[in-house]
Amino acid sequence: MLVFRALSVLLSYPTERLRQALPEIADVVRATPLLASRERQNLLDLVDQLGRGELLQAEEHYVDLFDRGRALSLHLFEHLHGDSRERGEAMVDLKRIYGQAGFDLAGRELPDYLPVVLEYLSCRDIAEARDMLADCAHILTRIGRSLIARGSRYAAVLQALLVIAGERPIDSAKVPPVKARIDTLDRDWAEEPAFAGAPLTAGPSTSASGA
Hints:
Blueprint: H1 2-10, H2 16-31, H3 37-50, H4 55-66, H5 76-81, H6 85-100, H7 114-121, H8 126-135, H9 137-149, H10 155-164
Helix pairs in contact: 1-2, 1-7, 2-3, 3-10, 9-10
């Protein structure tokens, strides 16, 4: 399902390659039947934002959001287990799921990194995708609320995932605004796709639905 590949790329560290893929991502967002008009338009607004201004500013904005504390971490199990042994065990289980489906992680990203999860779901059927997203809906909601509180258009991706999972989107009017936290050091980011042989852009999907 192309829409999950597109959402994965939108949540990834901004690069020139990502910017070059934005028109194709916008086409996927417009075409998918899995999203309502509001979620679709909010994603297109994010695409527009990512394509404007200096790339360095987009990079700095991304790091300030996602690399400055646990509230906005895109590593899902960090929200559940922190740095405990349970997180390691959960990642082993998730990596086993990938392996059983025939996918081996490439690069340096951990299996619970949300763009990696979405890249995996882009190669699975919609029923499995919805089940997995529903299982982590409470985490997606937590991250989405933190993004909304900071006025970030990246919240559109989390809202879209909740809708696809069959969950109610977050009521942004009920989320009080907060200032972004800056309390941790930057992290090295790999630009390679998560799975060997997978393209960065929203390329052909193995799903028959083409969503």
